[in-house]
Amino acid sequence: MADQYDTYHLGDWDLQRGGSIPNAFIAYKTFGEQNLPAIIYPSWYSGLLSDNFWLIRKDKTLNPEKYFIVVTALFGNGQSSSPSNIQAPKPWPVVTFYDNVRAQHELLTKHLGVSHARAVLGWSMGAGQTYQWATQYPDFMDRVVPFCGSAKTSDHNIAMLEGVKCALLAAKGSASGGPAKGEALTSGEKYRSWSTDESQTGLKALGRVYSGWGFSQAFYREKLYAKVLGFKDLEDFLVNFWEAWACSKDPENMVAMINTWQAADCSKQDPYGGNFEAAMKGIKAKALVLPSQTDLYFPPEDSAIEVENMNLGAGTMIPFPSIWGHWAGGPGQSKDDVRWLDDKLRWFLD
């Protein structure tokens, strides 16, 4: 069942930027037998574990009869340790991809008995975790496939996320404390939880702000929200796709994951010391980088820079030939893009 998953308890989990998650746990779901080659497939912003399952089927490259597939949930997604499901310090501390991948590595090695993976892959924030894996544990895998994501969150992407975060926080009468800093609190001010009305108003605003970023201009120009997704008009799409998605989430979780996203930079760890080129050259796995040619916040130009900084011959970049923007890489609504992605995975992994 899509809503069934397991958790692995980590104990008190010290964080890269200070603080800890008390009695932390990571949620995960496995497919296939443990003796098969392993594939690690992390979740994305707001995504539940089940939101990754569309790419896992017997007739696809991620075939559970061929691979042992481990889907992992981000801290903050509501299934792994999150503001919504544990008694934790408020506001939620900054949790980085480094913290997430260290937890995933412990799950794989200490609990699931996996010492090496065939591949790590993921969409959006899952792509960021893929780059984190490739630089944090460079000998652990043979292949990496980040699609529609980045190794380091760009200034433009950080600014876009500030708009999303501020739209959410405004409903609470609050403001952002800045990139990767969550809610602004004055000296001595205590954190206050969300009321139901604040939560719904803020999440609806978040959804409407995000609506201009997830899909491309051409997607809207061609009215694919109606022609393909079946919404009767733009307002129907905004209410029943974007607002419905956002209102199914917890506002504190959404802020927590934005902070993780804004903080993403796989060069900010030993031994790279913030040197992005050194981090890219530290990748030992073969990399297939798949941006969408119309992604508004992970553009192909950024992916090209990542591949150019890898060792010669280590990386290949092929853009999705799609007008679905960021959504070309998931979560499975564009059938042509699903086929294109699956073909590229089969060519690269098999």
Describe the structure.
By secondary structure, the protein is of the alpha/beta class. It has 11 helices and 8 strands. The chain has helices spanning 97-111, 125-136, 155-170, 196-214, 217-221, 224-227, 234-247, 251-262, 276-281, 300-308, 335-349; strands spanning 6-14, 20-31, 38-42, 68-72, 117-123, 141-147, 286-289, 315-317. The chain has an 8-stranded mixed sheet with strand order 1-2-4-3-5-6-7-8, sandwiched between helices. β7, α10 and β8 form a beta-alpha-beta unit. α1 (97-111) packs across α2 (125-136), α3 runs antiparallel to α4 (196-214) and α4 packs across α7 (234-247). The longest helix has 19 residues, at 196-214. The mean pLDDT is 97.
